[in-house]
Amino acid sequence: MSYIVESGASSSRRARRRRALITLSLVVLMLFFAFWYAYSYIQAPVDPSAAAAAPTCTPAATSAAPRPRDTTVNVYNATNRTGLAARTAAEVRKRGFRVATVSNDPLLRTIAGPAEVRYGRSGAAKAKLVLALVKGAKAAPDARSDSSVDLVLGESFTALARPRASVPAKPTVKPTVQPTAKATSKAPAPRATTPAC
Question: How far is it, in rounded angstroms, from Cα 88 to Cα 190?
């Protein structure tokens, strides 16, 4: 009987090896197809018909120059003069800026010049407006994420710069139309159209 037991044990070993080999082969085959699919997905060429279906033009964002009323200014006093930030903030408001905070300099820096203008990347254009408020002010970009601008008054600050004289608007000449003949028919009213790109 020992021969039958050995024969049965060896056949079960062969069956286990065969199952393991088949399972391993299937796993390797599945991994191959998974990597092949991922590679073909990454390397897929752009379909030209899909690009044609996309809109051909995008509306351009109007980036007008910033206006004082759209600029939020924090006025800080970096000197020992009491009330300097409050008086200056009142003048800044008169010039059309929005004043948010009026206080002593939170960074406690000593500013030898007339002023320092601190701003983040999104407030760079607005900072130019604030820099024009104080003659000799220095720009100091920082890492803030909003578009607010800090006007920090320094030791040599005396007053805000005089406002620029506004350029008088050119007079517009309206053309006058004198009828020469009596119109017998009305011209069709213009149709509303969508703006061209």
Answer: 53
